[in-house]
Amino acid sequence: MPSVLSDNDKETVKRTVPKPANKIQAVAVARLYVAYPNRQRWIYTGLQGAVVLANDLVGNTFWIKMVDVSANRECRAPIVV
Question: What's the pLDDT tens digit per position in 19-36?
Answer without folding.
Answer: 889 999 999 999 999 999
